[in-house]
Design a protein that fits this description.
There is one protein chain. The protein is α/β, with parallel strands linked by helices and about 200 residues long. Helices cover about 40% and strands about 20% of the residues. The protein has helices at about 1-5, 35-40, 45-55, 75-85, 110-130, 145-155, 170-175; strands spanning about 10, 15, 20-25, 60-65, 95-100, 135-140, 160, 185-190. A five-stranded parallel β-sheet has the order 6-5-4-7-8, sandwiched between helices. Strands 1-2-3 form a three-stranded antiparallel β-sheet, with no helix packed on it. β4, α4 (about 75-85) and β5 (about 95-100) form a beta-alpha-beta unit. α3 (about 45-55) crosses α6 (about 145-155) and α4 (about 75-85) runs parallel beside α5 (about 110-130).
Length: about 200
């Protein structure tokens, strides 16, 4: 279309204009970047961030949010965090993993069993490593409000988005859009579609 309407030379995904080279690609789905980016400074979000900060203190925050689904790798994520605490004991009491699982397919027996296995793994990890002042995994099985979500995105030191197989995964893009105050790091599985764009 560009070649036909402008006459510019086009090869593969590159358009050669007189003043610059433009790379083009197909981005089938995305987020409202401005909405997420600007929301982190809204009054209601600042209130949520203050709550998080008071609960965390100096601890680092790892955050993940996914719906209950086999493709999301939720158990693998927990097991990976457990290995991290075993391998690097100096991080105990210094990091909290807040894992939010959004209810999904509660009426299917296999998903109810997966939920129980996740809860059991969380209990095992917390029982193994926690002390009076620190609980390594904060597990929430619920949906979050927009303000809570943006606050957690912005306050998190690490966004852990590690599906085993996924479509685009807009959570990764939302997390990046909200990095205004804390400048966290996104750990993104290569199996998420967003990985092709967020290299």
């Amino acid at each position: 279309s560009v070649k036909r309407t402008t006459g510019y030379e086009c090869r593969q995904n590159i358009i050669y204009t007189p003043h610059k080279i433009v790379k083009v690609d197909a981005f089938p789905i995305s987020i409202d970047y401005k909405k997420f980016s600007e929301a982190s400074m809204e009054k209601a979000v600042l209130k949520e961030k203050k709550k998080i900060w008071q609960g965390l203190g100096v601890q680092k925050l790892i955050f993940s949010i996914d719906r209950l689904d086999y493709t999301k790798g939720l158990l693998s994520r927990l097991q990976g965090f457990e290995v991290f605490l075993e391998t690097y004991p100096e991080w105990r009491s210094k990091v909290v993993f807040n894992m939010v699982v959004i209810p999904s397919r509660d009426n299917i027996q296999k998903y109810r069993e997966m939920k129980k296995e996740i809860e059991s793994t969380v209990g095992r990890i917390n029982g193994k490593f926690s002390n009076l002042a620190w609980r390594p995994v904060v597990y929430q099985y619920k949906s979050l409000s927009f303000n809570e979500l943006v606050a957690l995105y912005d306050m998190s030191d690490v966004g852990l988005i590690t599906p085993l197989r996924d479509g685009m995964n807009l959570v990764a893009k939302e997390y990046v859009a909200c990095q205004n105050e804390n400048k966290g790091v996104l750990i993104l599985s290569e199996m998420a579609g967003a990985a092709a764009e967020l290299n």
